[in-house]
Amino acid sequence: MRxxxxxxxxxxxAHGELVQKCMKILVALGEIYGAEKMIPVNNVHSPxxxxxxxxxxxxxxxxxxxxxGKFKISVxxxxxxxxxxxxxxxxxxxxxxxxxxxxLDAYKQMGAKEMYTCTPYLTGNIPYYGEHLAWGxxxxxxxxxxxxxxxxxxxxxxxxxxxxxxxRVPAYGYHLDENRKATCHIKVERRPNTxxxxxxxxxxxxxxxxxxxxxxxxxxxxxxxIENLKAISAAVASSGAxxxxxxxxxxxxxxxxEAVLGEQYKMVTFDDREYQKVVDKFTYTGxxxxxxxGCPHCTINEIEHAAQLLSDKSIKADMWxxxxxxxxxxxxxxxxxxxxxxxxxKIICDTCPVLxxxxxxxxxxxxxxxxxxxxxxxxxxxxETGLIETEDCVKAAIDGRWGGIKK
Length: 407
Ligand code: F3S
Description:
- The chain has helices at about 5-10, 15-30, 50-70, 95-110, 140-145, 155-165, 195-210, 225-240, 255-260, 270-280, 300-310, 325-335, 335-340, 370-380, 390-400; strands spanning about 40, 45, 75, 135, 170, 180-190, 215, 245, 260-270, 285, 290-295, 320-325, 345-350, 365-370, 385, 400.
- The chain is α/β, with parallel strands linked by helices.
- The protein has a five-stranded parallel β-sheet with strand order 13-12-11-14-15, with helices on both faces. It has a four-stranded parallel β-sheet with strand order 8-7-6-9.
- Helix 11 links the parallel strand 11 (about 290-295) and strand 12.
- FE3-S4 cluster binds next to helix 14.
């Protein structure tokens, strides 16, 4: 691997032990993946920040690093394991919460911003087209690569920290033009309308593309919302390992099919039959004890919609609306939080059911509008899940049961 003078100095220890250790990690990664050089970066979104995922090993790793140095560039943090402001009131376990706060303190000491969300692009960390990043969190990676046209590999906690300390990433994977060409062409005949339908399409795309880069056609005249694009970005990365997808006429690297299609590719069609297979996978009817929207974290529009649906209602099942604390502050100001909480639902900040220790509550069923949550929840907590529209999530919470979609 070719290093420039500054990078070589970092590797030789001229900038201290932490920088040297981090550069060694990046060089080792670069060698594994055949990188020829490093790329400068100014933007890190670090995963592995939930104490549920990091554990004591992660906590000690970051605490040790925080005693040795600081971040060189801007760092935001992914979703954590508690609501950082209301953890006591919401009943998060004290010992878990204290360890989580310790981990955050170590990151903050190094210079990380207090932004604990899987949608950093909604709260101020907005990459520009072509910008090289070191981001973690699968849904945010696919959103930034695909929707924004930025360039990141899937960073883990240690490699994100190394990038934050050095301002470098090894040049491989999605940083390179040749790895951004589509290798799977998906003709979309069953076109999505709602967020749930975008999530269903994404779930199909992830399952057929796996590690390929898919390009979708047949959607050129659709005018998607940010919520639609957030839903598909999360879904492609849960049923498969898709970190980059293109939609002709919608995503910035795909003005035409020819612009983005590689020389070798497979071809499949998403039709009513494939749509129904995903729907059937996540069908549940019966009593409901937990309803969640906000995976990935809600936009202010989604919270407004939930407030409209919950206005003057009272819910029987527990209901979480997950978002960042920046977005909740706006919801507070707009009066949405008061309406939602008057109905008995909760706006939970900074965390989500996948990254906090919710399993201790003993829920049996989770209804959600998120394909990602519907995919992961059964394996994490041995629950049944149903993937339904936002309006139906609220209905299921009000009734404490779900009778199914009327055909
Ligand atoms: Fe975000 Fe948690 Fe879903 S991190 S994408 S809300 S699983």
